[in-house]
């Protein structure tokens, strides 16, 4: 053997070990962690000013409760335990200051408006029970309260109009279980196998047919996961109008297509064999077909978004800054997500953009379904804002914000991570052009936008509320609907009112209508409403007079009055309609912001209906009115339980006043028809169930402001498009090859439910 061979082998082994060690060390280090870069957005915007719109803090809410309990001279019971005959605090929310006061503070250095709360109280324990609204202030140390009910509504709010408290639902449930059901033991045991734990209830609204009624159908379901898809065929109408719970009574009973006077008559008919029994197969606790548990195991991870150099936006208290945008956000107990003082490039374009109402009208051949017209603001779009699941409800790396409320209790509650803010690469260009004629070049801009989102779960439905800010100065308001479809027990001619979803489950047809308030201030406080569209004109070709040309031309019209600016749901609306400023751009055009609506809404309810005025905002796809402090919302939380005498009737806002060169508000209605189908089992998907509106600059700028975006890409055939200084995309392997610092997954959605 060659004596040098062992040395050669040793050297070779050492070299191999060295190479492997280097590879392992390199692999162990992996990509570096992403590091945030200094943000330029921090230099603009004023937190101290945005706080004028900030939601009440838990401490402020507690101070308001303490003040009311000590200064009203009447006992106040915790609403979570209150009987109808008690006095209690239903809710405490921010009293948004008058716009004139706020603008003096924001724009001219005037005094900061007093910080105040709006408290809604139920007075059941007095000779004339009523609902009273108090403004309480100044915060954080209240020293006064004033009754604003008469000023706001023209009179006291009758007690029967009050939204139902959670405690009242519990009391009706207890009445059903201990009083009503005791009258039909054989039926309940033998048909429903009732054991006091295996049924769940869903109520309907409004509660009757006339002002003063408080009669509610309670629909029974199997108490399993996804119970709303498991009707058992029994519905009970409870008269709970009396403030004395002992006087509550069953007014009617419905089972499998037949009506009965009460539970006693139902039991008698069953015992005598005069009932057509349709026994429902008992579902397992997980609901079987209604379970949302995935039917397969997880596999490869879905794509994730991350920010290689950290967020390009900032959130400070209630102020958001993103590129040229700034705005304040808040969460109303009743109407949910709202934005204030929205500015682009430092100039205010809107004072307020807010959700107003979510209406759904159901059809069925069962009494509960056919009488349901839910006005979800009455239940509380903000109150039922749900905690968000990181990575599903919003991108994993989004900024999550806690919200606070005081509703139906004496103590504030916190909903952890119930609002999210994130920048989203929408995966498509905002604009682009590839030139292969004459000169060769490519120019484009990624469509990266900022999204503010909350999700309200009101009963069966989950509403995903988005406000989206684009780099070209456009704003989008969008709502996506998901959740469980409400169902009726399938019997008789049920298929006239929906589709069969399971053995005994009818997916009820329903309409959805969503109303928004958009207070645009385009180039200043005073605006006019202008409509542009297109019409064909017939003309002779100048170079060939014997030939005729159909030529599109621009049509223009100033809409002078509120009546002209109220566009009925099915009417033809100009395709370009915009708020016009008193200033002009470089090219001599009035600066404007255009309203563009995406909607599939049909008739909300026949106008001859006795309750239509309560939802008369839904008559219009768009209505523009003069802004008035006494018309802050298009509806009222009291309209749900007395739509026959509405506390606020939007139709009254439209009275043919002049709207030229005035402070204007646009009321936008979007909606869609939902006919539940088998693919809604177990859950309705957001795809195709999305509606909303866009606010787009229209001659507001001299050119597209997104041309100044740092995200723009441009290179020609003569340039080295592989060079970073020419094409930033060529640098991605260097600038974006990092590992995102994802925080640990947490979720607090099951706390304090």
UniProtKB/TrEMBL annotation:
Cofactors (names): Cu cation
One GO location term (cellular component): plasma membrane
First-level EC class: oxidoreductase
Enzyme Commission identifier(s): 1.4.3.-
Domain of life the protein comes from: Eukaryota
Catalytic residue positions: 376, 461
Record field: transmembrane: 7-26
Mod. after translation: Topaquinone (TPQ) is generated by copper-dependent autoxidation of a specific tyrosyl residue.
Cofactor comment: Contains 1 topaquinone per subunit.
One GO molecular-function entry: copper ion binding
Copper amine oxidase N2-terminal domain residues: 76-144
Occurrences of domain Copper amine oxidase N3-terminal (ranges): 162-257
Residues with the 2',4',5'-topaquinone modification: 461
GO BP annotations, alphabetical order: amine metabolic process
Xref: InterPro entries: Cu_Am_Ox_Cu-bd, Cu_Am_ox_TPQ-bd, Cu_amine_oxidase, Cu_amine_oxidase_C, Cu_amine_oxidase_C_sf, Cu_amine_oxidase_N-reg, Cu_amine_oxidase_N2, Cu_amine_oxidase_N3
UniProt keyword terms in alphabetical order: Copper, Membrane, Metal-binding, Oxidoreductase, TPQ, Transmembrane, Transmembrane helix
Residues spanning the signal sequence: none
The Copper amine oxidase catalytic domain, residue ranges: 305-707
Pfam families named among the record's database cross-references: Cu_amine_oxid, Cu_amine_oxidN2, Cu_amine_oxidN3
Annotated family: Belongs to the copper/topaquinone oxidase family.
Listed name of the protein: Amine oxidase
Annotated organism of origin: Tyrannus savana (Fork-tailed flycatcher)
